[in-house]
Amino acid sequence: xxxxxxxxxxxxxxxxxxxxxxxxxxxxxxxxxxxxxxxxxxxxxxxxxxxxxxxxxxxxxxxxxxxxxxxxxxxxxxxxxxxxxxxxxxxxxxxxxxxxxxxxxxxxxxxxxxxxxxxxxxxxxxxxxxxxxxxxxxxxxxxxxxxxxxxxxxxxxxxxxxxxxxxxxxxxxxxxxxxxxxxxxxxxxxxxxxxxxxxxxxxxxxxxxxxxxxxxxxxxxxxxxxxxxxxxxxxxxxxxxxx
Length: 243
Hints:
11 strands, single chain, 4-stranded antiparallel β-sheet, N-terminal domain of TfIIb, alpha/beta, 2 domains, 7 helices
């Protein structure tokens, strides 16, 4: 049995099971009727789903290991997905898209308004006239659980006879927003346990603030969609903008 790289396993454990937003991306891809760019594509949670429905997909991520796995899964499934390794804040000035997607909290890990502005400028330049840009943002106030909230169950998987477990430990206030912390554990085939803590800071970004920032780059918000929270993920708002 081939064991996947750790980065792929952790990404899948902590992100890939989220499906509450897929119906929105599917609807927008149908509405746009042209090439789609998936920002922060990871191992293909969104990109592969849309490619399976016949859409022309470009998947962009800065992590080569995740992109290689996305390409492998696409080939294994007989799907065509163009994979581009790049920083979303410096989008390649080549293709034009009918739809650009920024799922989950991708815009909230860009490094603040200035860096987000670089991304939005590139998105506007990369959209066809009349093209759509859709981004999800999370209300960080809702993300901080009360002290008496039950401890979430771990997400567990096996790869190459190794067992991997990711346990959400804490969501707490941070000067830039909130800090999310997981306990990552893995058990070797011989039973040896190793563990480490992994953290991610999500920046404060309200839908109103994103709407103002998008407008500065010629992206006008036409609609908002609310995504309800699930057992494992907080709710979010999808802003749908037109160039």
